[in-house]
Design goal:
Substrate binds at residues 20-29, 111, 138-139, 213, 251, 363. Its EC number is 3.5.3.23. The protein is of the alpha/beta class. The protein has helices spanning 27-31, 39-55, 71-76, 83-93, 95-102, 137-140, 143-153, 216-225, 240-244, 271-282, 299-305, 328-331, 333-344, 358-361, 378-382, 392-405, 418-434; strands at 4-11, 59-63, 113-116, 126-130, 160-162, 180-183, 192-197, 233-237, 254-257, 260-264, 288-292, 311-314, 321-326, 349-355, 371-377. It binds N~2~-(3-carboxypropanoyl)-L-ornithine (SUO).
């Protein structure tokens, strides 16, 4: 029997990580607008999380930051000249445009793509669709680079196949795995895939104060392209109440691992109907639903602490599952108390590990936002390209690379500095060598 494992591919915090408040509907991003960011600390926090996952015996991978500022987009906006002229002129003309093309948002790889592993697909291949991220301009420029990186790591062929990001702009808005859950008995067994959307393409969703980024039509396209098995696909709408409270992605209020679904009671409009449908699709495999009551954790605290934006993992040698939580959960009284109660309850979740990913959290990205899950067989892993799986040697190379190249202080005003762009491109060029990626950036093509 082929052994399957779930690998987590974390996005590395990029050199231009900053707080520009670009994401309308993302409470943390709005709140921290204009603050001082520390890209170096952010990248090292991310590497510490990866090291922790690795130390638990999990398979941990990494996805590189994107080239920022993105000069190709600035050229598309009509700026011409040398790199330095483009940066200086664009910043002078429009600081907000510069903030958009300089955002390090590609770190949140839960939005990089939707992945359906081989046990779920009728052709027995693992399917990837990079998310178009059409809802937010600063993220809508991520897909081409994401696609090149994924194709390099998971070569197209008998094992892996890659689809184009969806066209159709916001009408087929696709936010990737942050709105996707997979339930299964074991990672290698046939799964049920749950797609979560915020609205439908041609609807004016009057009940939404904030954007419903992902459409039901996009879910259907991805499920079809991925050749998912009949009866093993479910779709559900996010509760507008959750979106309006700042849960711009479903993974702010829900997380799953294997046969466990951990979610807030306001994540969906009708939890009972959803859990019934999931159980029906799972057949003989009994699901464990851990639904958190608003009376224990108000929605506002769930969004503030990112309790559900944790990673839920099975660690060998530990009985039950482990939550990888952001430290903010321990600093929020209701969520701290809830986690203590949960661990003591005798349910499927028995451990809580806290990680400091504050630099990312201040832009609305918790532990789960920072990772893309890819279930791989041993043979799949052997067929991967590049050097993206974390081991001690790669960790130390990456820490040295971060310490050499990253600034420890960055404000939105710094983004117009042509020297910053130069530093970024030199560093990323070196990174493609460390990760053996070949040419994946526009400036390398
Ligand atoms: N899954 C977590 C994604 C967080 C991301 N934040 C941002 O893009 C903040 C960017 C800024 O404000 O500079 C977003 O909202 O898509």
């Amino acid at each position: 029997m082929m052994a399957f494992t779930e690998a987590n591919f974390d996005g590395l915090v990029g050199l231009t990580h900053n707080y520009a408040g670009l994401s309308y509907g993302n409470v943390a991003s709005a709140k921290n607008k204009g603050g001082v960011a520390n890209p170096r600390e952010g990248a090292l926090q991310g590497l510490d999380k990866m090291a922790h996952m690795k130390s638990l015996g999990l398979v941990q991978g990494i996805l590189p930051p994107h080239e920022r500022p993105h000069l190709k987009t600035l050229r598309a906006f009509g700026f011409t000249g040398s790199d330095a002229e483009i940066v200086a002129n664009a910043y002078r003309a429009s600081p907000i445009l510069m903030a958009n093309v300089a955002s390090a948002a590609a770190m949140w790889t839960a939005n990089a793509a939707t992945v359906s592993p081989s046990p779920d697909t009728t052709d027995g291949r693992t399917h990837f669709t990079p998310a178009n991220l059409a809802a937010m301009f600063h993220r809508s420029i991520e897909a081409p680079t994401t696609a090149r990186v994924l194709k390099r790591l998971f070569p197209e062929g008998d094992r892996f196949t890659h689809h184009e990001p969806l066209i159709g702009g916001t009408h087929l808005g696709d936010e990737g795995a942050a709105n996707h859950n997979r339930f299964c008995a074991d990672h290698g067994s046939e799964g049920v895939e749950l797609f979560v959307y915020g609205r439908s393409a041609f609807e004016t969703a009057k009940e939404l104060q904030f954007p419903g980024r992902h459409t039901v039509e996009a879910c259907h396209v991805v499920a079809t392209h991925h050749k998912l098995k009949p009866g093993k696909v479910l779709m559900v709408k996010q509760n507008p109440v959750a979106i309006n409270a700042g849960a711009f992605h479903n993974d702010v209020v829900a997380v799953s691992n294997r046969d466990v679904f951990f979610f807030h009671d306001q994540a969906f409009e009708d939890s009972a109907a959803l859990t019934g449908a999931i159980q029906k699709a799972m057949g003989d495999t009994p699901m464990h639903f851990v639904e958190v009551a608003s009376s224990d954790v108000p929605l506002e605290d769930a969004v503030k602490s990112y309790l559900f934006n944790s990673q839920l993992v099975s660690v060998s040698g530990r009985e039950g599952m482990t939550l990888i939580l952001p430290t903010e959960v321990a600093e929020t009284p209701s969520t701290k108390a809830y986690v203590e109660k949960l661990i003591a309850s005798g349910g499927p979740i028995k451990h809580a590990d806290y990680m400091d990913v504050r630099q990312s959290m201040r832009n609305g990205g918790g532990p789960a936002c920072l990772r893309l899950r890819v279930v791989l067989s041993d043979a799949d892993r052997a067929a991967m390209g590049g050097r993206a799986l974390i081991d001690d040697a790669l960790l130390s190379d990456l820490r040295a690379w971060v310490n050499k190249h990253y600034r420890d202080r960055l404000m939105p005003e710094d983004l117009g500095d042509p020297k910053l762009a130069e530093e970024c491109f030199a560093a990323l060029d070196e990174l493609t060598q460390i990760l053996d990626l070949g040419s994946v950036y526009d400036f390398q093509l």
